[in-house]
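Here is an idea for our session: we take a single protein and study its fold together. To get us started, please write out a protein record for me. Start from the sequence, derive the backbone structure tokens from it, and show both lines together. Go ahead whenever you are ready, and we will take it from there:
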Amino acid sequence: MALDTFQPPVAPSPGTQKQYQPRLKKADFGDGYTQPTRDGLNHIRRVVPLKWTTLTETQAKAIEDFLIEKGGDTPFLYALTDDVTRQWRCEQWNRSLDTPNTITATFNEDFSIVV
């Protein structure tokens, strides 16, 4: 199965930040000592909160429709500004119905194997 590429009609608004979530296994010892170990090959997951402001109705609908189609469980490809294309999932987004429209979404890097 080929992954769809997310190509929003406009770039996210300025201020996009990358967050990192390392996944670690930790062994806690009785004297307060903790020994952390990396959990897996891809133990650092990128999490990116994105925001699109001042969207027209058509632009907002395009982004919203794509995210609804993916349903939170289907990965897709997306390249952040000046970054490489990575595989992502989006389990949470919202849209304000004001004029102009605003959409916020959180993209989580996805390491699942798609066949």
Q: What stands out?
A: The chain has a mean pLDDT of 92.
